Amino acid sequence: MKSPRLAVSLTALALALGLSACSSMESTPSSAAPVPKDGELAMPANYTAWPVFMAGIQKKEAKQIRDIYVNKAGTQAKAGGPFPNGTEFVMEIYSVKLNADGTPALDASGNMSKDKLSKVFLMAKGAGWGASAPAELKNGDWIYTAFEGNGTRGAADQSSCRACHLPLADKDFVFHYDAYFKQRAAAAPLTPMSHTQALAAAHTAY
To answer: Residue 1's pLDDT is what?
Structure first.
C-alpha cells in the first residue's frame, strides 16, 4: 500500500509531465510550409550556372532573344513524362540590337544579337502549387514569378504566362519540351547540353 506522501509525489510528477508536454506541443511550430503563389518566389541565386535548357532562341517578331536555364531537379525528367516537383526554369529575355530604322540588326547567319537583359521569368513546380490559380488557367502544379532585368520583382500579370502555357498540358506545360529531349539525347543520354551546344542547336532549330 502506498504511503500518502508517495501518492502525492507521484501525482505532482504526473501533473508536471503533463504540463510540460502541453507546453512543448504549444511551442512547436507547424511543419507545413506555406504554399507559394504566382509572383511570390525569389529569383534563384546563380541560376546562370544551371544546365542550359534552351539558349539563343530567336523571337524576331518580338525583337527578343531568350535563354532558358533548368535546375538540377529538372534534368532528372525523362522524355514523355512530367518534370518532377522541385523543377525550376529561369528564362532571360534580351532586347536586340537594332538598325537605324528600328529593324533588328542581323549577323551573317541572319541571327539577331543581344543588347540588354530586359526581363527574367521564373517557372517553378511543387506539390500543390498553383492550386489558387483560376480554374480556367491552371497549369498543373506550376507557378510563375516575373522580374525586371535588374533583378527587382516585376509587375507582370502571371495570368498571361498561364494562358500562354495552357495549351501545352500534354508537355507538362513546358515550351520546347520535345526539342530539349531531342537535343539532350543527341548530346549524351540524360546529360544536359553545354551552353555552346545549346546555342548551336537553337540557331538551327529556331
So the answer is: 54
What are the sequence ranges of the domains in the chain?
Answer: 47-205
Could you tell me if residue 112 is left (phi over 0), alpha (psi between -120 and 50 degrees) or otherwise beta?
beta
pLDDT tens digits, 167-191: 999 999 999 999 999 999 998 644 4
Whole-model pTM?
A: 0.76
Q: What angle do CA 165, 170, 173 make, to 5 degrees?
A: 25
Cα–Cα distance for residue pair 92/111, rounded to 1 Å? 17
Residues 6+ apart with CB under 8 A from 85: 73, 125, 126, 127, 141
pLDDT digits (tens, 9 = 90+) for 90-113: 999 999 999 999 999 999 999 999
Top-tier CATH class for 47-205: alpha beta
Contact 83, 98 (CB under 8 A): no
